[in-house]
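Encode chain A's predicted structure.
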Amino acid sequence: MAKGNEGLMDKPKIVVICGSSKFVDVMAVVAWLLERDEGAIAMGLHLLPWWYATKNEIPDHLAEHEGVADAMDELYLRKIDLATEIFVVNVNDYIGDSTRREIKYAQAKDLPLRWYTHDPIGATVQLLIERHSIQDIRCECPKDDVDLVPEHNICIACGKPRKEE
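Encoded structure for chain A:
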């Protein structure tokens, strides 16, 4: 991170992360890497805990379910108004309608765009995903000692998904 006079950090760039809510976990890692490695302020969607809205209750598009989709779309454009650059999380080249709108808005403001599929940060995240999907990250606690989070088959003791039996 760049430091200016008197040991203070230079004004950081503001990166707005755009992409489908289906990739919010990827966006969270991208945000962390932007802040950690580039000293940027990263803004995007929020990764909510599983207990806020389970996939069984709300399979997709939480903002629509809660009746705030239009307001959230507008708020996202206001985030872009604050941005110095945009990072588009286009996993497998997927870009939904809202993301397409955000990209056009950013382009009209002549903001630089970075693409997950063509950026070193995206490559780093993909390697992490591949590395962890290969490993068996299932709970191996003794069956009698396991309490599970309801509906999620997650072991309370270790926080890992329980192996199917």
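Residues 137-165 form one domain.
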